[in-house]
Design brief:
By secondary structure, this protein is mainly α. It is 90% helix and 0% strand. It is elongated, with a radius of gyration of 14 Å.
């Protein structure tokens, strides 16, 4: 597994964990914080997928 693939999986895991915490918290400000954090990790995962696809296409 490449280092980029490992980072992608880590970002996806963090996003899932943040979304789970957000869905279970009762405090509105904490919920918003974890929702934003989960969204940020989702964006990073999307960017990482794009980077991996670009590198793979260039190598082909």
């Amino acid at each position: 597994m490449s280092a980029l693939q490992a980072k992608l999986e880590r970002f996806e895991t963090l996003a899932n964990e943040c979304e789970l915490i957000a869905s279970r918290t009762l405090d509105g400000s904490n919920r918003e914080l974890y929702q934003r954090l989960g969204g940020h990790y989702r964006e990073l995962a999307t960017d990482m997928r794009t980077m991996i696809a670009t590198i793979d296409a260039a190598a082909a």
